[in-house]
Write a structure and sequence with these properties.
alpha/beta; Rossmann fold; 2 domains; six-stranded parallel sheet; 14 helices
Length: 385
């Protein structure tokens, strides 16, 4: 058994100063210590997949990251680990607890995952080893993790057994944020569906009304493709997978670089998939975040199947979650004003835009690889700070 500070301090010396995750009783001492360590940032996520997205954003902004979760939640990380971390080569240190381990009297829901945790990590091509049990093991374990992540640009995992870390209690006030939502969103949708403006025109208007010094994160699918077709810039990154993670990535960038404006171009299907991220954003209040949802009420990239956004008040949800500024809009002249206002206003801000169905049948795809996009994006972030 080790003390939480032994592992955290060793990791901090290696630069791991951005932590996120979802609690588990096995990892409680480590999370409790991290929550109270003033030398690092910790973001409590609503889901393990969201945590991977947040960590990815922080990494893009130059931070070394740790994601902590229960092995039962490892399943929630599969999509971003395979469609974000892998194609973009984004490393993160994973600390995964081993609930349901052989010979452990645990809850029935952990039985199967307890049997397959190592196999699942193997299938995901994520090398792993047991979490250190003694102080003497910590440095060598972290060195192996560092060496692998530096060489391959991919995650490395530690699997934590019950009782690996000595108990550590929470003290003091840890959640000073108070509920600030409740104000009604500004604006209304005025256009009938057949009168709505194309998503391409909306994205162009957004680009025309920002300074060009903002970071732009585009969700997977046609939003990213249309943004790229308007002209690639190194301040733009296009998610090729990890549906629902764009807002988490934007949050991670904001928390890692607090002075930066970050514009997230999201879709209705994507934001619905990880709606818990709205609550996380509302709690942590990233001042630079402008979250724009382009809502055509369908999954257009997969054939136009309806989402549930037509019966969901996304702007109302964002307001209730604590976004400081929330707008509804479907007219281009009004959008132009709102985008300019959001860029010059302390956030987080949320703009819900109803857009028309359809896109150019000849719409292309980015001709840069995800790794090329990532490297250009990270270099731009580094040089523009």
């Amino acid at each position: 058994m080790i003390k939480a500070q032994d592992f955290v301090n060793s990791a901090l010396k290696r630069g791991y100063n951005f932590w996120t995750g979802v609690p588990c009783s096995f990892i409680k001492p480590l999370i409790n210590y991290v929550l109270q360590d003033p030398n690092l940032d910790y973001i409590g996520a609503t889901s393990e997949g969201e945590a991977v997205g947040i960590a990815a954003g922080a990494y893009l902004a130059g931070r070394k990251t740790v994601v902590m979760c229960q092995n039962s939640g490892l399943g929630n990380t599969v999509n971003p680990l395979t469609s974000l971390n892998f194609p973009f080569r984004i490393p993160t240190m994973l600390i995964v607890t081993h609930r349901g381990a052989l010979g452990l009297n645990d809850e029935p829901q952990h039985e199967l995952m307890g049997q397959i945790t190592g196999e699942l990590l193997d299938v995901l091509r994520i090398p792993w080893e047991p979490f250190p049990q003694t102080i003497s093991q910590i440095e060598a374990a972290l060195q192996r993790a560092d060496d692998y992540m530096c060489s391959n640009g991919l995650p490395y995992a530690f699997v934590m057994s019950k009782g690996s870390v000595e108990a550590y209690s929470l003290t003091g006030e840890l959640s000073p944020n108070q509920y600030i939502g409740g104000d009604s969103p500004a604006g209304n949708f005025a256009c009938l569906p057949d009168q709505r403006i194309s998503r391409f025109s909306i994205i162009k208007a957004i680009k025309d009304n920002i300074s060009g010094n903002e970071t732009i994160v585009a969700t997977t699918g046609k939003i990213g493709r249309e943004l790229f077709s308007l002209g690639h810039r190194n301040n733009q990154i296009y998610m090729v997978g990890s549906m629902g993670c764009a807002a988490g990535i934007g949050l991670g960038i904001c928390q890692a670089t607090t002075q930066r404006k970050v514009v997230v171009l999201d879709g209705d299907g994507a934001v619905l998939m990880k709606m818990g991220t709205l609550a996380t954003i509302g709690h942590y209040q990233p001042k630079g975040l402008v979250h724009i949802v382009l809502d055509n009420e369908v999954h257009e990239s997969t054939g136009g199947q309806a989402t549930v956004s037509s019966t969901t008040d996304l702007a109302g949800v964002a307001s209730a979650c604590g976004y400081k500024n929330v707008w509804r809009v479907d007219k281009i002249d009004t959008l132009n004003k709102i985008v300019k206002e959001s860029i010059n206003t302390e956030g987080p801000s949320f703009i819900h835009v109803k857009v028309a169905l359809g896109s150019d049948p000849k719409l292309g795809r980015p001709n840069l690889t995800p790794i090329e996009v990532k490297e250009q994006f990270m270099m731009w972030l580094k040089n523009s700070n």
